[in-house]
Amino acid sequence: MVSESARNVRVVALASGKGGVGKTSISVNLAVALAREGQRTMLVDTDFGLANAAVMLGVNPPDTIEDVLEGRLPVEAAMHVTGDGLRLLPGASGVLADTAPLETANRRLAEGLRRQSETLDFVIVDSPSGVQPQTMRYLAMSDRVLLVLTAEPTSFMDAYATVKLLSLDHGYTAVSVISNMVDSEASGRDLFGRFHDVASRFLPADLRYLGSLPRDEHMRMAIMRKQPCVTAFPESRATAGLARLAQALAAHDIPPSSGGSRFLGLEHLDGVA
Ligand SMILES: Nc1ncnc2c1ncn2[C@@H]1O[C@H](COP(=O)(O)OP(=O)(O)O)[C@@H](O)[C@H]1O
Ligand SMILES: [Mg+2]
């Protein structure tokens, strides 16, 4: 297991169940905030239906994760490096062509990420909404899932379903919560408390609280400008909250799990290094 302890990169995947709660916005802004703090960061957009991360970053790269999964390009060629030094593997809009078995496709992605991993501190994975098997598989391959929760009952229920599937079907328990669109830090903490009470009563999850993000129209206005909020509105409450989340994530205890190793394909090295 030498390769495990030698690995510094942390693979963090955003999840929610429900759509429209802020996964992509938070992925993009967290990734930019981390990159600006000097954390070597890659953003991987695994939303094959609504590949929005590139749009929110204001870039339009020609190649996507689909080129990697289908074996046309290595990760190095398909990724786009932004002005902040963030490495983006853009999502693909449309369904993955059924040319290769999923196992083969995922292995190509894992091997490409493994090559990058030696020069990375964070891989941020944006996920589609919903609880599709492939989505759950990617989540369960990360070192830590960041579950985005809002005060809406539907968000609460869908987040619960996500944690349930992860823990019961995949034996995956490493979940940290971000309370989004909250009125105050106290209500964010309260929302987490209620979720924690219910989920930990019924599910074997290691639930932790990463922090909250206030409801702030600048998040939406930034998308209209095709810029991350942290770039477009540096003085906004949202940007302050995103910077706090980035710092909390950098300080969060995220030991590389065997899950992240699967994502990065590192399990092949076990026993060799
Ligand atoms: N903290 C926030 N305050 C206000 N609006 C937000 C906040 N977070 C996200 N949004 C808005 O919510 C909408 C959905 O966000 P998005 O990131 O696309 O969600 P998801 O990826 O979960 O579907 C966007 O219009 C975004 O601007
Ligand atoms: Mg999204």
Describe this structure in words.
This protein is α/β, with parallel strands linked by helices and 273 residues long. The protein has one domain: Rossmann fold (3-Layer(aba) Sandwich). Helix content is 46%, strand content 16%. It contains 13 helices and 8 strands. Strands 3-4-2-5-1-6-7-8 form an 8-stranded mixed sheet, sandwiched between helices. It starts with a helix and ends in a 9-residue tail after the last helix. The N terminus and C terminus are likely disordered. Bound molecules: adenosine-5'-diphosphate and magnesium ion. Adenosine-5'-diphosphate binds next to helix 2, strand 7 and helix 10.
Strand order of the largest sheet: 3-4-2-5-1-6-7-8
Terminal residue distance: 8 Å
> SSE order in H/E notation?
HEHEHHHEEHEHEHEHEHHHH
Helix percent reads 40-55%
Bound molecules: adenosine-5'-diphosphate, magnesium ion
Evaluate the radius of gyration: 17 Å
Q: Supply the CATH class.
A: Alpha Beta
In total, the number of domains comes to 1
Average pLDDT works out at 90
How many alpha or pi helices? 13
- What is the second-level CATH architecture? 3-Layer(aba) Sandwich
- The strand count comes to 8
**What portion of the residues fall into strands of 2 or more residues?**
15-25%
The coarse overall form would be: globular
How would you sum up this structure in a few lines?
Helix content is 46%, strand content 16%.
